[in-house]
Design brief:
The chain has about 250 residues and is α/β, with parallel strands linked by helices. It is built from eight helices and eleven strands.
């Protein structure tokens, strides 16, 4: 574990970041960047750079009208992958748009992301999302290496407070994200109609799926889905589900 970094983005936004090498360092690392205690946790996983424009526009409302406002009203922490793409970009922009103050923590593989002071990042480096407040940089040379760390950070920050994972769209890595949440007993709310992995999982939950990974996850009993086909009811239903889950007393 190294000393915390203060990152300053081109927009003037700042964030605290810390590098960790092993899971045992997480408690001290999180404390060093001002994250501790016990908070309700919202984990957001799903599509990054490969979300279609249609799916992107369809799910955008969920962030500005449901996820960000609920995190703000409950004082919850939000944990995601931290890069300036897909659902992570939507989460950061929603936080900025509503003027929220909740902590937004990105967990990303150190060797796959470009810090804001890297003027000429390599072709395969992805910028961090500038509206996040904290970053945990973890070992890894491949996308997906961050998946177990996202789950570990969320569990540690919750510290027995309620937590829930929201899964939107997504590719292969999103299956891993779902498994890590399920393995820790964290409920995964799948947004049906948001595309790709989310729709495959929703089909499995309806008993209509053929993907073996999706069927295994569906059998866990720790997934449920909200249908986004009717956008108005989808927004309303998701809002109520998330608020109820994060407001419950353990």
């Amino acid at each position: 574990m190294k000393n915390p970094l203060k990152l300053t983005f081109d927009s003037g936004q700042t964030a605290l970041a810390i590098r960790v090498d092993q899971q045992a360092e997480l408690p001290d690392a999180l404390e060093q960047i001002g994250l501790g205690g016990s908070r309700s946790i919202l984990v957001v996983v799903g599509g990054a750079s490969k979300i279609s424009e249609a799916d992107f526009l369809r799910i955008k409302r969920l962030f500005t009208e449901v996820l960000a406002p609920i995190a703000e009203s409950l004082g919850a922490y939000v944990v995601d992958g931290g890069t300036d793409a897909g659902v992570m970009q939507l989460m950061g922009e929603a936080r900025s748009q509503i003027g929220a103050k909740f902590a937004l923590i990105g967990v990303a593989p150190e060797n796959k992301v470009a810090l804001p002071d890297q003027q000429e990042p390599g072709a395969d480096l992805t910028p961090l999302e500038p509206n996040h407040t904290h970053f945990v940089l973890v070992p890894g040379d491949n996308w997906g290496d961050e998946s177990p760390w996202i789950s570990d950070v969320a569990t540690m920050l919750a510290n027995n407070a309620p937590s829930v994972t929201v899964l939107l769209n997504g590719g292969e890595i999103t299956f891993d994200d779902a498994f890590y949440s399920v393995n820790t007993g964290r409920l995964v709310v799948v947004i049906a109609g948001s595309g790709r992995t989310a729709d495959i999982l929703a089909d499995a939950l309806r008993g209509e799926g053929t993907d073996e990974r999706a069927k295994k996850l569906a059998k866990s009993g720790i997934l449920q889905y909200v249908n986004l086909i009717d956008i108005e009811n989808g927004v309303k239903n998701l809002g109520q589900i998330i608020k109820d889950l994060l407001s419950k007393q353990e």
